[in-house]
């Protein structure tokens, strides 16, 4: 499918989706969000894709929701259309792993979109922030909720109340990003990580994603039970037999997603 505000490329089982509104630092307008959700759903459904990378430009992953588009909206309109609920639900429903490769600004909805991915690899130029308070609003798709779970209350309050930006180094220390790499190597590192994931059984990778995400929804005892039951269920798969046999026979596993 042809898109106006994103570029999509599939190579070696990895789908790279690049946000592409350079004139607005990849601000997330309704067209971009709709195209992004459709592209993610297409990748999720495609036999050719085993892992997804979401990225932006060198200057901006995304500088937030599109302020021009939002500025004239009324309460009635945003409430009755449940603005941004669909994006949260559609991105959360993707079952294949999504890596956010972030360089430059990831602000407001940009930071929230990165947090909706499964993990974040940051360039050393990345800047994360929830500056919505400067616009007289608050975060709307995870900036007060997911960010607090990732970095703790104190830092989340700091980010949401002062609107200051976090460097990549601080974001790694705080647990928001999994690794920081030189900006020039960002896509190579993200692609290498995606290829590593793509080599695994897709069934198992999806089970990992579903189970880790449950840890945010469940108390520990229920989370552990869910994990154990999913672990047990993997013994019904051919990939479990193959993975363990390959280890014992000292060879590479040939997973078949069965
Ligand atoms: N919306 C619309 N346009 C934007 C946005 C934005 N969020 N950010 C930048 N732009 C535009 C600018 O208006 C400018 O356009 P023009 O050239 O036509 O004037 C162009 O991008 C370049 O921007 P700057 O000239 O400002 O570039 P600087 O390098 O001087 O500054 C900054 C970069 C610091 C990133 C600055 O642009 C900035 O502060 N942007 C706004 C950041 C912000 O407040 N983000 C939060 C938005 S609110 C939000 O995200 C609510 C989340 C709700 C959920 C979202 C669900 C997906």
Automatic annotation (TrEMBL):
UniProt xrefs under InterPro entries: ClpP/crotonase-like_dom_sf (IPR029045), Enoyl-CoA_hyd/isom_CS (IPR018376), Enoyl-CoA_hydra/iso (IPR001753), Enoyl-CoA_hydra_C (IPR014748)
UniProt enzyme class: lyase
GO terms, molecular function: enoyl-CoA hydratase activity; isomerase activity
A single BP term in Gene Ontology: fatty acid beta-oxidation
Top-level taxonomic group: Bacteria
Function: Could possibly oxidize fatty acids using specific components.
Similarity comment: Belongs to the enoyl-CoA hydratase/isomerase family.
The protein's name: enoyl-CoA hydratase
Keyword terms, alphabetized: Fatty acid metabolism, Isomerase, Lipid metabolism, Lyase
Record carries keyword Repeat: no
The EC number(s) this enzyme carries: 4.2.1.17
Catalytic reaction(s) noted: a (3S)-3-hydroxyacyl-CoA = a (2E)-enoyl-CoA + H2O; a 4-saturated-(3S)-3-hydroxyacyl-CoA = a (3E)-enoyl-CoA + H2O
């Amino acid at each position: 499918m042809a898109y106006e505000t994103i570029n999509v490329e599939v190579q070696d089982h990895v789908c790279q989706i690049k946000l592409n509104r350079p004139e607005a630092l990849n601000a997330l307008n309704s067209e971009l969000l709709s195209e992004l959700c459709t592209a993610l759903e297409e990748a999720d459904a495609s036999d050719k894709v085993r892992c997804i990378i979401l990225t932006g430009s060198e200057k901006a992953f995304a500088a937030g929701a599109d302020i021009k588009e939002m500025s004239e909206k009324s309460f009635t309109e945003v409430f009755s259309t449940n603005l941004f609920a669909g994006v949260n639900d559609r991105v959360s429903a993707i079952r294949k792993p999504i890596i956010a490769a972030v360089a430059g600004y990831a602000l407001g909805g940009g930071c929230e979109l990165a947090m909706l991915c499964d993990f974040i690899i940051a360039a050393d130029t990345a800047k994360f922030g929830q500056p919505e308070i400067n616009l007289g609003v608050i975060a709307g798709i995870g900036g007060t909720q997911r960010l607090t779970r990732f970095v703790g209350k104190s830092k989340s309050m700091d980010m949401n109340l002062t609107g200051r930006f976090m460097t990549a180094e601080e974001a790694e220390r705080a647990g928001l990003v999994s690794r920081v790499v030189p900006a020039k190597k960002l896509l190579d590192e993200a692609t290498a990580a995606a290829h590593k994931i793509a080599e695994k059984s897709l069934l198992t990778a999806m089970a990992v994603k579903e189970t880790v995400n449950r840890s945010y929804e469940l108390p520990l005892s229920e989370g552990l039970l869910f994990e154990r039951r999913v672990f047990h269920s993997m013994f019904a798969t051919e990939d479990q037999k193959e993975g363990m046999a390959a280890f014992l026979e000292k060879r590479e596993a040939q997973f078949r997603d069965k």
